[in-house]
Write a structure and sequence with these properties.
The chain contains nine helices and no strands. The termini are far apart. The N terminus and C terminus are likely disordered. The chain has one domain. Helix 4 packs across helix 5. Helices cover about 80% and strands about 0% of the residues. It is mainly alpha-helical and about 300 residues long.
């Protein structure tokens, strides 16, 4: 038996050593495959991002889109005399269809994205007017209600995903949060602009107030480490009243300092400007944190 032990002992020890090496190699292989799968998933999220990178071109088109929302919404409810309820339901239908198309799209499409933005701001225009003039809650009440609604959406988004950054819009659930927040912020911007004008400042005076707010946002962006996410949403709301001001400039009488265009003609001009911008200004999909950790806001 002692002889047998001396013969088989080293063989047994060698087999144990080989088994340990195989297990360690298997762990390394599996770890490498898991890391590769995670990297692939992160790259896939970046490839599927359907929100544009936030650049100067983004803000130019965004202001033009909100202007189109103002003139287009007023064209339907006032010029064509559909009324605020019918106009609100019409643009809500367009918005729902376009949001569904945006979610089902396989990749970022600038024309589809900005059509959805225009639908959201047009719906925001008619909804704000309906709340003030048909429901009678006033711009102050409407603004308060919309602010609460926006904060609830952002809170639910943050609770679900841990962030409200537009860089994370890469799944259908997050897209739903994103478009709900976009729509409420557009409507809130409309109500705030009308409320400011109704206080006696007029649209020009209100524009100066919101311009000051945007200057503050820009200064915080350039010279502080203030949250880029919060600055994005603040700028998104504050740029909306500029659309109303520009829309009024296009269709108000010459005697009041405007160009006296009809609302449908003004809408056609702005729509053409947006299309030209989409061809001229770079339109790239936003970067997902899995691809780049640098904030895009």
């Amino acid at each position: 038996m002692r002889i047998l032990y001396h013969v088989l002992g080293p063989i047994t020890d060698l087999s144990f050593a080989i088994e340990a090496e195989l297990r360690q190699s298997l762990v390394y292989v599996l770890s490498g495959r898991i890391e590769l799968m995670n990297a692939t998933a992160n790259n896939l999220k970046g490839a599927l991002s359907k929100v544009p990178e936030v650049t100067l071109g983004f803000w130019i088109i965004k202001i033009a889109a909100t202007t189109l929302g103002e003139t287009g919404g007023d064209s339907v409810t006032m010029t064509f005399n559909w009324g605020y309820l019918a106009g609100t339901l019409l643009f809500l239908g367009f918005l729902v269809v376009l949001v569904i198309a945006q979610i089902l799209a396989k990749k970022f499409n600038p024309f589809l994205y900005w059509a959805t933005i225009v639908a959201s701001t047009t719906f925001g225009t008619t909804m704000a007017d309906f709340a003030d003039r048909s429901l009678g809650i006033g711009y102050a009440g409407g603004s308060a209600l919309l602010l609460v609604s926006l904060l609830v959406v952002l809170a639910l988004w943050h609770w679900s995903e841990g962030t409200i950054s537009v860089n994370t819009v890469a799944t259908p659930k997050v897209e739903c949060f994103y478009w709900a927040a976009i729509t409420f912020s557009q409507t809130l911007g409309t109500a705030l602009g009308d409320w400011m004008a109704d206080t006696g400042l007029g649209y020009e005076g209100g524009a100066l107030v919101f311009a000051a707010g945007l200057v503050i946002v820009g200064a915080l962006y350039l010279w502080t480490n203030f949250s880029r996410v919060l600055l994005f949403w603040a700028a998104f709301i504050l740029t909306r009243p500029f659309g109303a001001t520009l829309g009024d400039f296009l269709d108000k009488p010459v005697s009041d300092g405007g160009l006296n265009f009809s609302r449908p003609l003004a809408s056609a001009i702005i729509a053409a400007f947006i299309v030209i911008c989409l061809f001229i200004l770079p339109q790239r999909a936003g970067r997902h944190p899995g691809v780049s950790s640098q904030p895009a806001e």
